[in-house]
Structures are given as C-alpha cells and as structure tokens.
Predict the structure of TetR/AcrR family transcriptional regulator.
Amino acid sequence: MKKAAGTRLNILQKAFELIYEKGYQTTSIDDILATTQVTKGAFYYHFRNKDEMGIAIINELLKPTLASSFIAPLQNDKNPIEAIYKLIHYLLIEDEFLQVQHGCPVANFTQEMASWNKDFNDALNDITQQWIKTMAAAIVKGKEKGQIRDDINAKQVAMFVTSGYWGIRNFAKLENNKKVYLSYLKELKRYLNTLK
Amino acid sequence: MKKAAGTRLNILQKAFELIYEKGYQTTSIDDILATTQVTKGAFYYHFRNKDEMGIAIINELLKPTLASSFIAPLQNDKNPIEAIYKLIHYLLIEDEFLQVQHGCPVANFTQEMASWNKDFNDALNDITQQWIKTMAAAIVKGKEKGQIRDDINAKQVAMFVTSGYWGIRNFAKLENNKKVYLSYLKELKRYLNTLK
DNA sequence: CTAAAAACATACTAGTTAGTATGTTTTTGT
DNA sequence: ACAAAAACATACTAACTAGTATGTTTTTAG
C-alpha cells in the first residue's frame, strides 16, 4: 500500500494544478487522466466520483498548505501587523506556485462550488475560518501587547484583510500583471498602520 | 425590427440570470432556450456563438447597470467618503437583484473567463476600470475640498475598496448569510474614516 | 508459495454539449 | 400586394462528459 498512495497523490496534485488553471467544472476527468497517465479504472478505484476527488484536493492538499504557508507565519511572529503584511506580501509577490492570472485557489473554488455543493462549501469554509481565526488570534495578542489599539475588532479586521486579499487576486487577473499587487500592498500597509 | 430586439433582450436577460446563478460554463445554451422559450434557430440568429452572447451580456446589460447603480451615486454626492460607504452598503444590503449566495456578477465573470478569453477580459476590464476611475475621481474631489487627507492616493484607495467588495461578496457565499456584510461594513467605515 | 484482496486497465454507455443544415414563417420596404 | 430580407423553427451531428462493467495484473498476508 505504498505505490497506490503515490498514484492517488499524483492524481490529486496534477488535478489540482489543472483545476487551478482551468477551473473545476471545465477540467474533465479525461483531462486529468491524460496528464497523469493514469487510467480510468485507477481513477475510479481511488475516488468514487469527481466531487469526492475535489473534496480530497481541499482536505489533503489545500489544508496542509494552509497550515504551513498561511497559518504558521501568523503564529510565530512577534508583531501581528508586520506578520500580516509580510504574509500577504509573500503570497502575492514571492510565492512561486500562485500565478497572477489564476487567482487564489480557495477563492476560485469558493466562487465555483459554494452554494452548489454542501461538501465543498463545508470544506472551504473550514479552511477559510481557520485562517481568519488564526489572524484574529494574532491581532488579539497584539492588542494585549499594546501593539494594536484596544478598540479594534480582531475578527472584523481579519475578515476585512481576507476579503481584500481574495479581491485583489481576482482583480489582478484582469490586468494580468503583478503591478496591481504593489498598489494594493501600499494601501494595505497604510490600513494596517491605522490599527496601531 | 422591434419584436426581434425583444427576443434578443429576453435572451440576454434570462441568460444573465442563469449565469449569475450557475456560472457561465455550466449554463448551457439548452438551459437558456428552455427558460426563454426561444428556439435554437432564433438564438443562433442573434448570436454567432455562446461567447458572443456572453460579451453582449457584459456590454449591453452589465455596463448600463454599472453606469446607473455604481457610477452615478459616486458622481452626485457631496462627500466621497459617505458616498462610497453608502454605495457599498446599498450593494451589499439593499440591492434586490444581487444575492448573497451568488456573489458579484462581474467578479464571477472575471474569475471564470479572464485569462481564457481576451474579449471577456477586455470587456470586464473596461467596466471595472470605469468604476475605479469614477471612485478615484470622487476621492480627488474630496481631497480638493479638504474632506480627504492630502497624502492619500486616490486610485490606490479605489482599488483597495473594490478588492474588498469583490472579496466580501465571494466570502459571504461560504456562510450564505448577509451577517458577514455587517461586519465588513463596520470595518470599511472605520477604514474610510482614516482617509479624513 | 499461494490465495485473496488491492490496484489498475480497457471497452463501453447514456446523456449532454455547442453548433449546423435546412427548412418555414414573419416582417419590411416599395 | 409582393418580393426580399429578417426572424425564427426543427432535426440533426460530432465531440465530449461522468460514470460503469468487466476484465487483468500486482501486492500483500499467512
């Protein structure tokens, strides 16, 4: 039971890349089979149907990535304002997987699937809430340390930041140019400084 | 050439509603024919193909709506900060066409089509830039009137606000509840007040 | 080593898709 | 009133879709 896990992971990873580029609905199972060199029999051995694979991508690929790349940086840093800015900066400018023309995978999935498939909705809400909660917790810590004003609503700010991040990722698709990120980051920095 | 224009408009409107609810790719032409009671012959008389219809929806339905509901309120008001807040509040809370579970039509289209179809991209970028420019112009006016600080970058703020709006519309899909809008609006108001 | 289960392979199906071919009806200008 | 063009109707096609039926091969446990 080792090689089998490899095929499964291979399917998930390649499928995720395709879906990130083309969207879930427009990525056919045959597309996935062609790029993975896996046969239909193997695919349906590992997944009951396409949606089950989609949920597996969220839970087995996106969730761990979230934990390492989105959650951890917020928990370790001393200063939440700097941590949030550095994180968004990293995600927009430095991260090598995320592409400007394809937006945010979680936001994409949400737009396409939420409200049409409860399982997708739940899985996506799960990881999104995790991010928000972590960010809010960091802000609360900052308030306790006196780095952030007392009258700031932590969760409210976390939602506001997340919304902006999702929005700018979608927005940048139109111009297909990272330059809009720089403009956004400037205003984000200004906004974050008003929390002090 | 009067009834014909009616059929065309009927197709565009019903198709737009379907696309807003289900997405562009997953709304089939047969779906549109079924809800409009129009035949395939009529459809393909009016539109060369599905994409041409999609572009027509953007240019002939979304663009005018943008002008009346998104642009005008920003041009008439005396105070840009109030105008922006009132506009976003209206769009999120009061507007009767926009549904929490379906997000923002322009953002949806952008996510689904931009980077895959240049015509869609251009049409969407066109109306988005129009909104941004109008908002930025209102902010510039506010700067001249002394309602907004001198060091504020108008276009930067307009992009920031637009991103947040798109983001929260997508975000609210997950919870399928207008309550998240209230939290967002509170922070938006706080943010807007820092421009003073 | 061997039987059973796990993992994969191939061929097929029924439904859906955008789009076309070829008509008929309706509207329009004169 | 009438021909021409505009507007619409019907039947079809070829490609693609998710999923299944039925195999064969590989792995694993005893």
User: Anything to note?
Assistant: Chain B touches chain A through 47 residues (CB under 8 Å). Chain B has nine helices and no strands. The CA atoms of residues 42 and 48 of chain B lie 11 Å apart.
